[in-house]
Amino acid sequence: MRIMGLDFGSKTVGVAISDPLLITAQGIEIVRRKDENKLRQTLARIEELIVEYEVDRIVLGFPKNMNDTLGERAELSLEFKDKLERRTGLPVVMWDERLTTVAADRAMMEAGIRREHRKEHVDKIAAIFILQGYLDYLASKENE
Q1: How far apart are the first and last CA of the chain?
Q2: Phi-psi bin for 117: left (phi > 0), alpha (psi -120 to 50), beta?
Q3: Phi, psi of 91 (to 5 degrees)
Q4: What is the DSSP string of the chain?
Q5: How many structural domains compose the chain?
Q6: Which of 10, 100, 115, 116 could make an S-S bridge to 126, C-beta 3.0–4.6 Å?
Q7: What integer is the mean pLDDT of 64-70?
Q8: Which residues are CB-contacts of 28 (< 8 A; sequence separation ≥ 6)?
Q9: What is the domain extent for residue 85?
Q10: What CATH number is given to the structural domain containing 76?
């Protein structure tokens, strides 16, 4: 069993996968699209990765506003969740992703990745942060 983590953006989706023991998250790719509203190919690629990695659950970043309200990006993420569930038949868990992009950018800065190269990786790293947060939550729940 593996869990997939997704960071859904306007033109990209960062993808991360858990290890089989559900301990760590690894970034695997960024799915890019030319138009924000063209999701068919994006969903098809996610389906291919689900089969390849034997995923049985998806964690989708939920970009709430800092005051805990839902903005346009959060609404679009909920629509994407519905499409994912219909297309894959898998449960999709919404996971608060506030500040994951900031954390991803900071991690890359600390790793010495130049500013012009960070944009190429930020969505994948944000997906890792989203999934790792969920995996840590599951582990803490299990230890209670």
Answers
A1: 22
A2: alpha
A3: -70, 140
A4: -EEEEEEE-SSEEEEEEE-TTSS-EEEEEEEE-SSTT--HHHHHHHHHHHHHHTEEEEEEEE---TTS---HHHHHHHHHHHHHHHHH---EEEEE-TTHHHHHHHHHHHTT--HHHHHHHHHHHHHHHHHHHHHHHHHHHHT-
A5: 1
A6: 100
A7: 76
A8: 15, 16, 17, 49, 53, 124
A9: 2-142
A10: 3.30.420.140
Enumerate the β-bridge partners of residue 18: 25
* Residue labelled with tokens 């030319």: 34
Task: Round to whole Å and give the CA distance between 31 and 26.
Answer: 15
Closest CA to 127 of 11, 2, 12, 10: 12
Q: pLDDT tens-digit profile of 85-140? A: 999 999 999 998 866 666 666 776 776 767 666 566 677 888 998 999 999 999 98
DSSP state of 36: T
In this structure, the number of other CB atoms found within 10 A of the CB of residue 27 comes to: 21
- In one letter, which amino acid is 127? A
Tokens read off for 144: 């209670």
Per residue in 42-59, pLDDT (tens digit) is 999 999 999 999 999 999
φ, ψ at 141 (rounded to 5°): -65, -40
